[in-house]
Amino acid sequence: MQPLAYGLNMRIRPANLTFLLCSLLASLLAFAARPETAEKHEAATCIVPAKPGGGMDLTCKLAQQAQQTSTSQPMQINYLPGGVGAIAWTTIITQRKAEGNTLVAYSGGSLLNLAEGKFGKSDASHVRWVAAIGTDYGMIAVRKDSPYKNLRELMEAIKSKPANIAIGAGGTVGSQDWLKMAQIGKQIGIDSKSMRLVAFEGGGESFTALLADHVQAVSGDASEASLHARDDKIRVLAVLSDARLPGPLANVPTAREQGFDVTWPIIRGVYMGPQVSDRDYQKWVEHFQQAMNTPAFDEQRKIHGLFPFAMTGKELTDYIQKAVNNYRLQAKEFGMVR
Fold first, then answer.
1. What would the DSSP string read from start to end of 166-216?
2. What is the distance between the alpha carbons of residues 128 and 224, in angstroms, rounded to a whole number?
3. Pairwise CA distance, residues 34 & 36, whole Å
4. Which of the 8 DSSP states describes residue 83?
5. What is the pLDDT of residue 12?
6. pLDDT for residue 179
7. Of these four, 79, 177, 242, 261, which has the most CB atoms within 10 Å of its CB?
8. Interior angle at CA 7, CA 184 and CA 51, nearest 5
């Protein structure tokens, strides 16, 4: 079982206003996001709670391919960004809570947001957790032509002139991408409040901004970075794993190798609405159990830059509850729970 990483935060906005805005937007977008066959529940749908191109997108694409290998029934992918996952969460628990063929992608960042109160007064019991289909790891990257050759050079530059280096992240202060940088920075005396964070709706936007030189670094996920590393347009300075990762980032040193004792594993999977019938819920649990036992799924997981982690149903639900509780305990120590 992969270890859990629990982050710390400094300041976050009032929850009530944020969640209210997300709820209003969710109500407006709910029907626009529905597939045409939603009422008949003929087509399966995986909702990406972010814009295209990031880790949530990869999760739904992997779920889609798992569906294609086990049945002829198609799976649609819909995008419902907003509130760093809050719009999609609110939509599912209020507007689409009983849809038996609608899945929503989640990550460890979703659990952190839930623990910090960024999804309003919701808790982990307000949805049905179907499957964890892989794990990812945090990473820090710059453009290929960046002057920073390793993680320490980048962090020393941020320490010296924090205003000169914009850091792209999926989410605002308190998000997991921000926490990765905050934890690394703390180890060389950087005040997390001084870091220049630029918030985006997911890793896809962060890398687009990096390639356009709108930001000078990205705190994101290894799966996202692997896609861009193949094009040789970025330089990944460090992966936040216990050991070096196989695949396209095999030559990238860990943060620990460079003197920063920070790791950040990221569970990825899908959940469903709270009123989905036991029959429909169990159907998807069994679907993922069977799919994840096949060599074809292992291969697709590798292609999508994820690493083995398989858990479903009640076991997953218990695991997630513990993870959220641990995130909350860590955040409370620094007054980060809304």
1. EEEEESSTTSHHHHHHHHHHHTTT--GGGSEEEEESSHHHHHHHHHTTSSS
2. 26
3. 6
4. G
5. 39
6. 86
7. 177
8. 95
